[in-house]
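Let's study my pick:
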Amino acid sequence: MARFDEVKNLVMSLESDFEKFYEKNNQAAGTRVRKGMQDLKTLAQDIRAEVQNTKNTATK
């Protein structure tokens, strides 16, 4: 569950940058959003691999 909390915290930390980018057209905020979304993708991939690995070792 700690990994899920990481995902939630990352998404919540990007909220203000999303608002700044979409509502105020702040380009620097857009860069931070893109970086944050890349971090989210990496985290999701790591979690996916961890779940798959745990699932495979549990069924053996």
About this structure: The CA atoms of residues 19 and 57 lie 42 Å apart. The two ends are 23 Å apart (CA to CA). DSSP finds three helices and no strands in the chain. The mean pLDDT is 95.
